[in-house]
## 1
Amino acid sequence: MDTDLVRQLNDDVWHPFAVAYARLDAPAFLALHAPELIRAGGPAKQVIGFAEYPDQIEEWFAELAGRGSSVSISLRFVERIVANDVASERGVFRLVSTRADGDGRTFYGRFHTYSRCTDGRWRICVDYDTDERSATLEEEFLAAFDVDDVDAFKE
């Protein structure tokens, strides 16, 4: 696997993904997704397309900001398959939500995304996540590879 492609994917998608979450920046977050996006799973356990996704993200980020809450996301990977202009990546995420009063909660989940590089830029085309088997997720998160550990996925 070409680790330069993985680094480009990190620069185009994963690093800005975490920054957009931390800033509650819905337009920046949505720009990381392709117009043909299929979004499945999540807390609502539903399937939607890109047309419905902005309303969900904008509403959620606005609710958090309105309450003075913050959120951060960390991603770790168990599989990264990247070739030419397509990628399949699986991993575990940690979401930390902190209320204005300082009370925080940590959530874990598994994700699987498919991305495509068009016009020299990577975007997420399919995004699936789940919190099934949540009892082991923190352990799995810690055992997975950091987003910048691209050499872990060399053949």
## 2
Amino acid sequence: MVRDPSMKAVGWARSLPISNGVKTARDWTREHLETLGWARTAPDLMDSVVLAVSEMVTNAHVHARSDAQLILAWDEECLHVTVHDSSPLLPEQRHAGDSALGGRGLLLIDALADDWETRPCPRGKDVTACFQPPPSTKG
């Protein structure tokens, strides 16, 4: 697909320490999605993105035992949500029993996002999820 060279992308980045990062991540993400007008045009999608961000940052803090870097990038087709942590271990889906309190994070991200991937980096890994709003909100 050839992109229109006049297309403008926007992005935001934020470091999130283990001590208070998850609530900060949710609030910060919600604020930026509001600047895109999603509170009005795609409120359910906005809630899905905020929930996925919460899960991704929690995973970085709990499983990687790492601060997290959250990056939101909007390219007028997809909101790319990336969480970077310092662990080189890529996440793996686990089978969580009915009574388990955890173990469903990747299943949740898979259900919420249009697409997602993990990628090793020189100093850890990135987990990226893509969210495509309904056509009427892409404008």
## 3
Amino acid sequence: MRLVIIGAGFAGMYAALSAARLREIQGVSPDELEIALVAPEPTLVVRPRLYEKNPETLTAPLLDVLEAIDVTYVQGSVETVETQSHTVRVATAKDSKKALSYDRLVVATGSRLFRPNIPGLAEHGFSVDSLDDAIALDRHLHGLAKRPAANGRDTVIVAGGGFTGIEAATEMPARLRAILGPNARTRVIIVERNSAIAPDMGAGPRPVIESALHELGVETRLGAGVASLDESGVTLSSGEHIETETVIWAAGIRAAPLTAQIPAERDSFGRLLVDRCLRVPGVEGVFATGDAARAACDDEGNYALMSCQHATRMGAFAGNNAAAELLGVPTRPYHQKAYVTCLDLGEAGALFTRGWDREVEMVGDVAKKTKQEINTFWIYPPKAERAAALASADPERVTSL
């Protein structure tokens, strides 16, 4: 039997850990149940941190962990999923093709930044969506120091006033000062189409965010969007033109395109609709998890967000359940009633909220310490020690806050 997992992000990593854990509990050997993880590199990109400086350091190796738990790593990118024949076709690093059959499949392909067809965005926009994107932005920022302090050199526009946009914007003043010098006349401006900053965070946390932006000197343009970009800067839908050499696009994400190959229903974000055990209804042997799945967290109408916090726990349930079906043991319905947010606010600290109504629990330096602990410890892979790694993937305990 073979269980194939597509993706080495948070959901894919925990799917592998959890499936291997159940295999161990059931006393089944890797020869009887092979668990194979397919990804371009055996590396976890710590995506929630890509707004920070030195993005090239924000990865964690996975090969030793996978070897410790007897998970086969297959290097390559899945190009095709053939659900009728239970086969995935993999493009390998050497431009060859490889067919891999599966008895159960876990789609953990994550998400991608949504880039609309705005004039000039592809040519002039940056992002912190992927490791390559974040590295390109970091190099660009350092390159600004070699340019004359004119034509908007010291101005950064962040398009999108949601979670990612706020973290990128509030980190930017310190990054710019470090690169351009303390006397540079830097400007950071968030452009948000909604009438309020952080539209999804609600009214409770908003005063804390607004206070932090004011403290850091971050400006906002609300009720306006980016209409076009060119070499001179950005033109907003309001008609305002802002000179800048740096535009960071942070306005929404969508499930990775591979989900479109699964013949099933998807939501407006491209996520596959799944049942409570994270199966894709009507498609034999296929589970979806993380940002690739729209999953109910509880019986109260809350659904998993496209976030690391939800992806890790969803991955653990998906891996466990896919293995459980093959091993003939009961599956476990996914549930995730606890929900917190921890928003980095740069030198203004951080904001920690609890619950779906986002009740403010910590702010400032206290919340910043929690954010740093999350970013440097909680979201990293377990140590490459078999017992500890397997123990970390109990679905009922992963991301139990």
## 4
Amino acid sequence: MADWTITASGDTATFTHVADGYWAPRVWSGRGLAIAEADLPALDKAVGAVLKLPIYWLARARHAAIWSAPRYDPDYELVYLTGPCRTGAPAPGYRPAPAFDVDLVHLRGLRIRIAAYRSASTGR
């Protein structure tokens, strides 16, 4: 990881590489980046280091807000999570549904909310 310097602040991580010129990372702003294949293992380690930082988890929690905090209804013994879930036949209100869809990009946020709820409600 010696070739990379990482600065994390707010919701952003800045990765700085020591290479200049041809071997420097290339960025198409808003679209993507290109990294020398030889630098991928070090970049992978750098990204992994950021994922271990508390600031990453704070940012994840803010962005997991697409899903509401779970709310337990003791009358029905159901846990409600407001978020991007849908069925083939949309209808107002909560209705029984044998299947539902969640976009892949939102699964991690859902999992975080469920894990936090389960951790907080242990022993209910």
